Amino acid sequence: MKKRMAIAVLALLGLLMSVYLLLYTLGFYGELVCGTGSCEAVQTSEYAAFLGLPVAGWGVAWYAAVFVLAFLSIQPAHQEATWPARLIFLLAAGGLAFSGYLTYLELFVIHAICWWCVTSAVVTLLIFILAVPVRLRGAARGAEGATG
Q: Which domains occur in the chain, in start order?
């Protein structure tokens, strides 16, 4: 249960970061607060959109989905269900793969680093790391129910 709560908290953190980046992308902020790095270069590059939508928008949708699933999975009605853990794991694996692709683009194509993106990648990695044991425990619970 603690890992699922941690996933929910991390997803909420990622959601807030993604909303900030999406609001910047949509023109609600004139300057992106980054500290060091080249956030502006990354956020305005041709790779800042995927399938015609801002990458930050995909982040908002992904983090929101992970948050909702993690939040549902800690509710008493769904604590024993295995489907939330399965979906969180699948989303985490997909998010990690996409985050890896975006990090590759930053390092080897755009040649600029956005610290917001790096932080999001770390949050995604942490969600994946937490999702693995949750999924394994859910799979073991499902196998016990099928055989017992």
A: 2-143 (1.20.1440.130)
